[in-house]
């Protein structure tokens, strides 16, 4: 009888120890899973917008916007970024519908877009915007001069923020407006339009103009002596977040501010745009 009782006691203690051990192991695993969860984020980018964002010869996403977001990713261990190349139109639709959590496309701020996207507190970069003109019109250095000369502008899609930039100028200058026409597609080949004399000028970002015209391997390098780029403004650019991603946008704000403080964005700007636009940040109004 004593032997039976002793056996029962030892067996009970063994089962208790086993249950405690399993319970402790399970709690530890759950804590590890809880603390170690990494949320995957789909970052959409315009894959045909060199040097802002594009696929390099090895098939890897790169460009100022993409590389800046890669640096943000390194500072956010709770997130893992997956970069998805797409078109500008699909990026806007995809982010608004939640297909992508955030998108980068050298995006400007517009009132209309605030109804569809979260704009973070901190901007991503800066962009030089200007006019592409025939060499004979190189003396035109502003929208005011362009409008006063009665020149025609290449059409811009109404949902393109460049349209908003020109429209804002027209609203401030009703007596000297630029002839603004909404296009059927998000963007047109303004360099070709100007070269073919279909219009007198077109709005373009400096980076793409340099890569297409000034670069020796650019598709329009043969026009390097025929067309010019004249800057008329420098504008802040932003990532566009899905409306449900406020927490993620807040995390981005902290990371991008740290990168700006460390001057890492200045280095990227020089690498991809050949100039540090942050040097004129105090003059940027938009």
From TrEMBL:
<keyword id="KW-0449">Lipoprotein</keyword>
<feature type="domain" description="Solute-binding protein family 3/N-terminal">
    <location>
        <begin position="40"/>
        <end position="276"/>
    </location>
</feature>
<protein>
    <submittedName>
        <fullName>Amino acid ABC transporter substrate-binding protein</fullName>
    </submittedName>
</protein>
<keyword id="KW-0732">Signal</keyword>
<dbReference type="Pfam" id="PF00497">
    <property type="entry name" value="SBP_bac_3"/>
</dbReference>
<keyword id="KW-0564">Palmitate</keyword>
<dbReference type="InterPro" id="IPR001638">
    <property type="entry name" value="Solute-binding_3/MltF_N"/>
</dbReference>
């Amino acid at each position: 009888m004593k032997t039976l009782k002793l056996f029962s006691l030892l067996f009970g203690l063994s089962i208790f120890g086993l249950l405690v051990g399993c319970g402790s192991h399970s709690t530890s695993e759950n804590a590890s899973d809880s603390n170690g969860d990494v949320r995957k984020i789909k970052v959409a980018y315009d894959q045909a917008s060199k040097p802002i964002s594009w696929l390099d010869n090895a098939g890897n996403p790169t460009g100022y916007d993409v590389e800046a977001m890669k640096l943000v990713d390194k500072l956010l261990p709770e997130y893992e970024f997956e970069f998805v190349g797409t078109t500008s139109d699909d990026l806007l639709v995809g982010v608004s519908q939640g297909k992508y959590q955030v998108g980068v496309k050298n995006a400007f701020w517009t009132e209309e877009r605030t109804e569809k996207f979260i704009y973070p507190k901190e901007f991503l970069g800066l962009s030089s915007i200007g006019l592409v003109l025939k060499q004979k019109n190189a003396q035109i250095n502003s929208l005011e001069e362009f409008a006063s000369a009665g020149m025609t502008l290449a059409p811009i899609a109404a949902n393109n923020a460049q349209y908003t930039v020109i429209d804002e100028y027209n609203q401030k200058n009703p007596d000297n407006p630029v002839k603004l026409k909404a296009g059927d597609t998000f963007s047109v080949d303004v360099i070709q339009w100007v070269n073919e004399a279909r219009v007198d000028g077109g709005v373009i970002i400096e980076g793409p103009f340099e890569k297409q015209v000034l670069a020796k391997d650019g598709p329009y390098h043969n026009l390097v002596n025929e067309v010019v780029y004249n800057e008329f403004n420098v504008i802040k650019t932003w990532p566009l977040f899905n409306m449900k991603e406020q927490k993620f946008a807040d995390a981005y704000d902290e990371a991008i501010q740290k990168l700006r403080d460390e001057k890492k964005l200045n280095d990227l700007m020089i690498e991809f745009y050949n100039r540090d636009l942050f040097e004129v940040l105090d003059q940027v109004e938009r």
